[in-house]
Amino acid sequence: MFAAGSLASCSEDDDKGGPTPPPVQLVDQIEYDGGTPIDIKSAIFEVEDTDLYTFYLSPTAGIADMDGMSEANDYLRVMVRNPKGTVNTESDTFEISYKDISIKEATMKDVKSVKLSADYLSETSRLNLYVEVEMESGKTLLARYENTCSEAKLPELNNQYELNGEALTIGSVLKWSNATTGATTYYFYNEADVTEPQDGLNGLTVTLAAEATETTFDLSTVDPAQ
């Protein structure tokens, strides 16, 4: 029994040209295609629809907003819904992208195996993330992060609004009240010297119901088509 076990072990080593190396132990790092692990120095996230989180992890230090992350252009991006642990990659919503590796529903045919776990604790701003990917091409991606992750800071705007990453200047602001419904509509136009509401002008429209005395808007969820 002992001899058989030894032979099997030797045969496995010979087939692979030597002993199997131990698995990589990552600590807040990314390993791409078997290369040297890269330290993660910045981690931020965005959230949509209250529970759709997109995490960005970068080896560039000091990144606090999406402009900085886009400028660095070296990040691991992971999107999950309700990040509370292991992701079922066969049924749950998720995306993973890093360099030339991109995993989503449309590209799963190119994936040999994928493991994903994401647990975000809002009370402590801590993200526990594990990514393990092997593509059909043989390319691999590993990542582990167990550290703080802050929500991306909003851009600083001055008489502007941002749409699709572009800051647009507000040239005119109008307030219009509906005597019948009691609703109040605010028009923020890009053009200057607009004195009454007009169709066809570029801008942002916000309508408040009569009973609204104090309201907080998350304009990141506004549908530009509406």
Could you give a quick summary of the protein structure above?
The chain is mostly beta strands. It contains two helices and 17 strands. A six-stranded antiparallel beta sheet has the order 2-1-11-10-9-6, with no helix packed on it. A six-stranded mixed beta sheet has the order 8-7-5-4-3-12, with helices on one face.
Descriptive report:
The protein is mainly beta and 226 residues long. The chain folds into two domains: 26-151, no CATH class; 160-221, no CATH class. 9% of the residues lie in helices and 42% in strands. It has two helices and 17 strands. Strands 2-1-11-10-9-6 form a six-stranded antiparallel β-sheet, with no helix packed on it. A six-stranded mixed β-sheet has the order 8-7-5-4-3-12, with helices on one face. A hairpin with a 2-residue loop joins strand 13 (160-163) and strand 14. It starts with a helix and ends in an 18-residue tail after the last strand.
Q: How do the strands and helices of this protein lay out in sequence?
A:
Elements: H1 2-15, E1 29-32, E2 38-39, E3 42-48, E4 52-58, H2 66-72, E5 76-81, E6 84-86, E7 94-98, E8 101-103, E9 111-121, E10 126-135, E11 140-148, E12 150-151, E13 160-163, E14 166-169, E15 172-177, E16 184-189, E17 203-208
Parallel strand pairs: 3-12
Antiparallel strand pairs: 1-2, 1-11, 3-4, 4-5, 5-7, 6-9, 7-8, 9-10, 10-11, 13-14, 15-16, 16-17
Region (Disordered): 1-23
